[in-house]
TrEMBL record:
Entry-linked InterPro entries: HD/PDEase_dom (IPR003607), HD_domain (IPR006674)
One Pfam family recorded for the sequence: HD
Gene3D superfamilies: Hypothetical protein af1432
Protein name as it appears in the record: HD domain-containing protein
SUPFAM superfamilies the UniProt entry points to: HD-domain/PDEase-like
Record domain HD: where: 44-136
Amino acid sequence: MSTPAATPAAPFPALPVCGVAIPATGLITAAVAYARAHTSPSTVNHCLRSAAFALVFARKLPPYAGADAEAVVLACLLHDLGWAVGESRALLSADKRFEVDGANLARAFAREHSEYSEAQLQEVWDAIALHTTPSIALHKQPVVALTALGILADFTGPYHPAGAISVAEFQEVVGAFPRLAFRDELPRTLCGLCRDKPGTTFDNFVGEFGAALLEGEEGDAYREQREKNSARNLLLGGLDAVKQYE
């Protein structure tokens, strides 16, 4: 792999308690700038925390010791491009899940700013597209698994199912990259997806936010649509519909 040259000064806080450092390569520095240009400050900090936690898992869990740290950090930094804000929303599709939008944008970015092979680009794409599906991601390549592990750790900290994140490490990472308004912004973002492109939310966790938090007629209409398009109804309804041809 051809690694971009490091920048003269690392733009990231030191993390001595965690024993890791976010690589300050040209690609990573550019990725942070790209994320800042298109997503909110709290989303950027969430992505930076996720990257730091992913590196902690890579250091502590033997199966991931040889993972490409730059690729892991790149995937974490760009994993929420599907939450683009303001004029940057023009980058997003009208019919794809936010994870797929993010994966597509990240792959295009990496293709332009690095010499990654197509196989490496595909790993970054997989890592982002699958980051909300750990039951699949954890059985793929280390880059994909570590991305999912690191992102989940930002929500669970020391209570992560895989362990490995200590209270001191968690506090250091959150201190370096503060939460800002992430707790309040998250439900607004996900409910916005339920409003703007509901068809991308019916079969995944985003729909849980819409079903629980959208109110009034809007909420009733969303819940009715979600139920109609549930996997149960689609599968059993399909079997009932084709039975006449059997």
